[in-house]
Amino acid sequence: MSAIDVKSEISGRVFEIVARPGDRLAEDDPVMILEAMKMEIAVGAPCNGVVKQILVGNEDSIAEGQVVAILEAV
Amino acid sequence: MEAASADASALLAIVNDAHRAIDDPARTEQLARHRQRAALTARERIAYLCEPGSFQELGALVRPRGGPDRDAPADGVIAGTAKIDGRWCAVLSQDFSVFGGSIGELGSAKTSRLAHMASVRGLPLVMLLDGGGHRIQGGQNSRHFAKAGPFFHELARMSGWVPMVAAMLGAGFAGPTNYAGMADFVVMVRGQSTMGLAGPALVKAGTGEDVTVQELGGAEVQVDRHGLADLGVGSEIEALDAVRRFLSFLPGNAREPAPLVAATDPADRLGEALLDIVPANTRRAYDVRKVIDIVADAGSVFEIKPTFAGNIVTSFARLDGRPVGFIANQPKRLGGMLTSDACDKAAHFIAVCDAFGLPLVYLVDVPGFSIGPAAERTVLGRHSAKMIHELGHATVPRISVVLRKGYGLGYFAMCGGRSFDSDASLAWPTAEICAMSVEGSVDVAYRKDYESHPEPQRRRQELIDAMRADINVLEAAGGFGVDAVIDPRRTRAELITLLAQAPARRANPLPPKYRSIAPI
Questions:
Q1: Where does the record place the CoA carboxyltransferase C-terminal domain (chain B) (predicted)?
Q2: Residue B280's pLDDT band (cuts 50, 70, 90)
Q3: Domains in chain A with CATH codes
Q4: Could B335 and A36 be called an inter-chain contact, meaning their C-beta atoms sit closer than 8 Å?
Q5: Predicted ipTM?
Q6: Is B173 helix (H, G, I), strand (E, B) or coil?
Q7: Yes or no, beta carbons of B284 and A37 under 8 Å apart
């Protein structure tokens, strides 16, 4: 099993963290919701996996391409 | 007479032997290496794609006269005409088992002639690519190379006349990538195909960089990240099926009508789920692909570039059996913002649909173009112009349906309102059409106002509420910016009825110029 970076495609602010460490996600399932461009934009799982670590907190500012969580691919 | 006929029979036997010698059963040994890396040989690929017995080979017996590459059956490229789903096409298939599918002098001449035949006859050109660039063994000298060849000139002139398709089925660096770069649709096999102007060895020699084949030109890079190819699939068979599917939406050439199929899905079928898919709350995302799936004929949707620039969705589909092109903002990705990649993707799709007579159906939910330094670094100002340029030149019917947001220049680029003389400009009750987001415009224009207020947040909200009162679908309809506000459930029926009334092509008189200059 390999660790996969979950990256944000957009800069914004963390609005809500949806997934927790240990959660099993399918590809595209939301890991967290960012607020950007006056919208709630999900950062989705890049593949099926288990959440290993969440690297940001609520209200944090996120840069485009920033790693916000680590998944363990399954 | 008898002697002459015996002679002819003997000569015919020689010719037949020559044909047999280049066929797969006679080349088991030479094909062994190829079979280790691919599922199908060059000839088997043609046999799978085309109707049995329909392939008429061109230049089967060409063979270099001498030199190290004299044993090059068909000179490494199998070419001819064949039927795909009942229609004649020009097909070429590079043979990797012959000097790695490299391009020899005669193979190149054959390829050019096939393209010329496709152009003259008005046949789609299908390129099954698995090879390299110039065959060094055939001559690395000026006498040979200075002639170059007319293939690229032919491809450029054929663009928009006949559909051109490339299936990248293995090695694709150099020549094959340049061929595919001119195609309307390119499919790659994941883990097997490569694309790029030069492979790792040449990169190493030229720049000193170490990079693997897949890192440099695999589908994950060239399909998903760069959008050079349109689709990544799991096998050669899937790639060939994708070629067939792509062609099924298009006519043989630009002067033929797009192929209709018998409709089995009722034209007036209601899309009950459409009332629930799009949240009225403009902050909430949803998957616009579900909207397309419901509106289009059941099972007809074929998405182009599904893994690239997912913030816009471009799909061929059918409405009452008629091929159309859907262009839809995807709120699920980047809020549906228009980025440079999204604009390029849409611009190319518009050009393909317009060239081959497919009406454009815009599903609009656009917060605008991407902003900020990162967006500017992509030269968005020019890429956005490209999308607009292509729509401005289109002569096919076009209909816009505003599902929710229609903000700013993005609304224009998505054919909103009267921007590009749509055949119909429709809106759902959830439409919110204005120059920019309400919150954004309050923050831009009234920041000083609310910040100087004793209760800034309350004042900001008051301003937002006041502005929002003027932004709704009744105002849009009241000012005749849209033709009709429709029941979302009836979107399919409305589109089918309206498209049935629109002429297949419209006059688009231009000033007396020779050409337009695309913003590229």
A1: 266-501
A2: confident
A3: 3-73 (2.40.50.100)
A4: yes
A5: 0.74
A6: strand
A7: no
